[in-house]
Design brief:
Layout lengths: L12 H14 L6 H10 L4 H30 L4 H28 L8 H8 L4
Helix pairs in contact: 1-3, 2-3, 3-4, 3-5
């Protein structure tokens, strides 16, 4: 009992609730990109908030890049057009499902990290 740190070192329940709400905001598909970008631009927030912001931005940029590449491929190809559009819809659905899955994981208090993508986001956006 004597080795416990003072109560001031523990996070207050209000701080963790606010932090979880911000994490949920960052993980909203497409719209969460903007608060995530703002958090990284200001360089304010907890370590967890910065990590989720990096992941959200990386997910959104990956989706935008894939969406435009598949759309332009479908527009330029007559033979593969329908296949690329179907692949584009699967890619978009996957982005939304992964984002919703991450939101549920944050609500449950589990890890929000994605194998490969989280480390890629940390490496690319480390300076922010």
């Amino acid at each position: 009992m004597h080795n416990l740190p003072p109560m001031d070192n523990y996070p207050h329940p209000q701080d963790t609730a606010t932090s979880n709400k911000l994490l949920l905001l960052y993980l909203i598909p497409v719209f969460g990109f903007f608060p995530s970008l703002w958090t990284l631009y200001r360089r304010q927030g907890s370590r967890e908030q910065l990590a989720v912001s990096r992941l959200s931005i990386t997910l959104c940029f990956t989706w935008i890049l894939g969406y435009f590449l598949l759309s332009s491929g479908a527009a330029t190809s007559d033979f593969l057009a329908i296949r690329l559009l179907i692949l584009n819809s699967f890619f978009t659905s996957g982005y939304f499902l992964v984002s919703i899955w991450l939101i549920f994981r944050v609500i449950q208090g589990k890890s929000y990290r994605l194998p490969g993508l989280s480390s890629f986001a940390e490496r690319i956006l480390r300076q922010y």
